[in-house]
Write a structure and sequence with these properties.
The chain crosses the membrane at residues 12-33. By secondary structure, the chain is an alpha+beta fold. The chain has two domains: 11-40; 62-160, Immunoglobulin-like (Sandwich), CATH 2.60.40. It has helices spanning 9-42, 140-150; strands at residues 50-52, 58-60, 65-71, 77-80, 83-89, 100-106, 114-115, 120-121, 127-134, 153-160. Strands 4, 5, 7, 8 and 9 form a five-stranded antiparallel β-sheet that branches. A hairpin with a 5-residue loop joins strand 1 and strand 2 (58-60). It starts with 8 loop residues before the first helix and ends with a strand.
Length: 161
């Protein structure tokens, strides 16, 4: 049994095809524009603000410098029964003082089970340490093995004056 095409089926299909084809150049241009803006801002971002205080004194802040990187999954080491650790080297950033560090995790899977890696320890201008455990109740040896197979890289960013 065959059914006749509805009156607007072809129009609907062609409209969707047109939207998809028109969206590709738009998203490509938008992606290139965003990439250019991000690359321009990652060279070095500086800002200087002037703040007037109640005593009519003027304070000028120093330029803000930031640098970041991705530390390899191969750096994870067992630390305690159910904790693994990673020492992150930041010497390539040449921070003049100890910066404020931020971290996130990336990987092929199960990295969302990790907790604690945003707590920065032993921070200096050339390195810092993070510790991670899992609410999946893995021991440190299991976690390090999974980190290797799932490519659990640590993304990090440091801000300094």
């Amino acid at each position: 049994m065959t059914f006749p095409l509805a009156k607007y089926d072809l129009f609907f299909v062609m409209s969707l095809v047109g939207i998809l084809l028109g969206g590709i150049p738009f998203t490509t241009l938008l992606t290139l524009y965003m990439k250019q803006k991000i690359l321009a801002s990652t060279i070095q971002y500086t800002t200087s603000t002037t703040v007037a205080t109640m005593l009519n004194q003027t304070n000028t802040t120093k330029p803000i410098y930031f640098c970041g990187g991705i530390s390899s999954y191969t750096l994870w080491q067992p630390y305690d029964v159910d904790v693994m650790m990673m020492n992150i080297d930041t010497t390539n950033c040449s921070f003049n003082a100890t910066p404020i560090y931020f971290t996130s995790m990336a990987g092929l899977g199960s990295h969302w089970t990790l907790i604690g890696y945003t707590g920065i320890s032993i921070a200096t201008n050339i390195s810092f340490t993070i510790y991670a455990s899992s609410w999946a109740n893995w021991n440190s040896t299991q976690m390090v093995a999974i980190a290797q197979t799932s490519l659990w890289n640590a993304n990090w960013l440091g801000f300094s004056y």
